[in-house]
Design brief:
There is one protein chain. With 179 residues, the protein is an all-alpha fold. It has six helices and two strands. The protein has helices at residues 12-42, 45-54, 61-84, 88-112, 135-154, 162-178, and strands spanning 116-117, 125-126. A two-stranded antiparallel sheet has the order 1-2. The radius of gyration is 20 Å and the shape is elongated.
Length: 179
């Protein structure tokens, strides 16, 4: 088969480049969502605690308080680190586990018949009478973030990441040591 008959995408370098760009987009989506959610909550940690309590999870009160205070900080840290592209696979795993927990929490309150705002990108808590929850949209959105996390676990290498910069520096150091 002549080279001109081979499609451009069959080139392994081209496929790797496309994956790296997709991984960059996945990093920015997942990291941006975590960072924004955390920044929206960090200014009012007492309300963050109330949003967690609204889920009425079968956990001791002090666990609700710990989660409410810690969650915005963890979201900001994970979001910033994944946007920077540092330890991408591991941070994506943590972000993905958070999405699974969020999906489970939203599903829990939906099945219970509670009417809450999940608090993901808002203040959260119980909804006023007559206002309908958006559980299906929230779950679909979080599944999208989970897909980004899974992609990054499988394909952590991406453009404009600290991981790539560190690996390039390590490769240069190794090459200079062997010469």
């Amino acid at each position: 088969m002549a080279d001109q008959d081979v499609p451009e995408t069959s080139n392994p370098t081209t496929a790797r480049t496309i994956r790296e760009w997709i991984s960059l987009v996945a990093r920015l989506i997942l990291g941006g969502a975590l960072l924004i959610a955390g920044l929206l909550s960090i200014g009012d940690l007492a309300q963050s605690v109330e949003a967690v309590k609204a889920y009425e999870l079968p956990l001791p009160e002090y666990i609700h308080v710990m989660i409410g205070y810690a969650l915005p900080v963890v979201e900001i840290l994970l979001g910033a680190v994944i946007i920077a592209g540092l330890l991408t696979r591991w941070v994506a795993l943590l972000g993905g586990l958070m999405m699974v927990a969020f999906i489970a929490g939203i599903t829990f309150v939906w099945v219970k018949g509670s009417a809450i705002d999940c608090g993901c990108f808002s203040i959260g808590g119980f909804l006023p009478p007559g206002e309908n929850p958006t559980y299906l949209q929230d779950i679909i959105r979080d599944i999208g973030f989970l897909v980004c996390a899974v992609w990054l676990i499988i394909f952590p290498r991406s453009r404009f990441s600290l991981d790539s910069w560190i690996n390039t520096e390590a490769s240069i150091d190794e090459a200079s040591e062997t010469s």
